[in-house]
Write a structure and sequence with these properties.
The protein is of the alpha/beta class. Among the domains are: about 190 residues, Rossmann fold, CATH 3.40.50.150; about 190 residues, 3-Layer(aba) Sandwich (Rossmann fold), CATH 3.40.50. It contains 20 helices and 17 strands. The strands form three sheets. Strands 6-5-4-7-8-10-9 form a seven-stranded mixed β-sheet, sandwiched between helices. A seven-stranded mixed β-sheet has the order 13-12-11-14-15-17-16. Strands 1-3-2 form a three-stranded antiparallel β-sheet, with no helix packed on it. Helix 10 crosses helix 11. It is found in: Endomembrane system; Membrane. Its EC number is 2.1.1.-. This is Methyltransferase. Keywords: Glycoprotein, Membrane, Methyltransferase, Signal-anchor, Transferase, Transmembrane, Transmembrane helix.
Amino acid sequence: MKNTTACLKIFSTLILLASLFYIIIAPSFYTSPRIHQNLHLQSQHHFDFCPSNYTNHCPCQDPIRQRRFPKAKMFRKERHCPQSTTERLRCLIPIPPGYQTPFPWPKSKDTAWFSNVPFPKLVEYKKSQNWVRLEGDHFVFPGGGTSFPEGVKAYVNALKRLLPVPLESGDVRTVLDVGCGVASFGASLMDYGILTMSLAPSDEHQSQVQFALERGLPAILGVLSIHRLTFPSRSFDMVHCSRCLVPWTDYDGLYLREIDRILRPGGFWVLSGPPINWRVNYKAWETEPHELKKEQNTLEDLAMQLCWEKVAERDQIAVWQKHIDHISCMQKLKTRRSPKFCNSSESDPDAGWYTKMTACIFPLPDVKDVHEVSGGVLEKWPMRLETVPPRVRNENDDGFTLKTYIEDNQTWKRRVSNYGVLLKSLSSGKYRNVMDMNAGFGGFAAAIVKYPVWVMNVVPFDVKSNNLGIIYERGLIGTYMDWCEPFSTYPRTYDLIHASGVFSMYMDKCDITDILLEMHRILRPKGAVIVRDHGDVILKVKEITDRIRWKGIVVAGDQDGPFHPEMIMVINNDD
């Protein structure tokens, strides 16, 4: 039986290789000279490069398109993507003059080439706050910030004294930094094994997110406006805002309620700057004390409605902790104004793709007593990565999800090991910013964590199994996405893009040419792409990547069954 299975696998592999030879190579031998000439001319029809003013183009954050939308609630800064094929660019984003390969990690955390992000405006605008300095041909990030007058390390040390758990403990793993600047806060937390998603809109602080990604730090363009953030409920161990200019008390606390949605039970909300400790700071802020007092009182009342308990306030920093359940909190609030809970008609709490915010509180999963954590207890990092997430354990499907999850992990460990052979530089530290376009359970990211990389786990919003919440419970990060639209990032921000099953998923939804052009936009010039898909899909993809001037090598996929039709295309632009 074993010999029969082995023979079938070999036979299947030979069929795949023969098919590949016939489709890609055979035409050069068996077509007539005229047909061969036509094929050659067609393959030479490459995409042109866009004009130079598109060098830093973000299609969904285009400033010209943004002007069509109102400024109220920062709606202008939300995603506004091209709505028709005529609006989509069908050209390749050019690199800026003098572009150089970014510094390797961890040097990139402190240094970036000016030619790669040629924006001196932030240096001048934030000169007194020491966000970033220009020294000759490169930027230096000294760790300053609006709320970091003594540097980010001193700020983090002050925060450590206020938190009830040590940052070194592994209790805090996933953090969202709202209004991140150049992501110095997230860079500093890296020293504690903490993964921070830095979030900022495209605004007058030119290219904050682009600076963050150039440094090798996780970041995404986004804003608190009308729609929810692109994350599932109960995602983050901590959410941080340091003078992020979000009107937390406006619109019946709409934005604070959104933070509550994505904050894990027992998680922390950290706010520094106005109105915190206003009695001491109002003169420095040049603001009337009664205004700050009113704002902080409203903030405290909203936090109480959300079942958050203030654990510390000192200098300009305050820390709240979300209750581990809603039972004990409701008992304390029974004599006060009852908080407004969302009902079932106000959508799934995990929905995060063009879903409008509502000024209500999503109820936490039920618990049996006040000592139980809603949704389940998470292990400390790094044990969290190897432990079955609560969302998998709690599935009532006779263990089907658990079995699938375990098999998925084993599969991706084997596949990533194979990637190390196909991409020799994977283990050398050449890649830092990695994207998985169809992350599933996050198995690829979990298997690649042994390398000095971080992974943006992307989950298409309309997949049958929405596992982004599971990915966050593993101590990883990611976002929802529709690959028929461009991604919320700047050009040249990822070193390695992994696309497993993406093109077969979108083949009938939109033109896959636009997806590949978007991949070209966000990939660094010497970056790499791995595409896994059905053989016929891979061949269609390769026709387009040839026109992009990418040299793809196609190999048979690992054989998960005797007739498994999968193939892999590897594009290594450093060759």
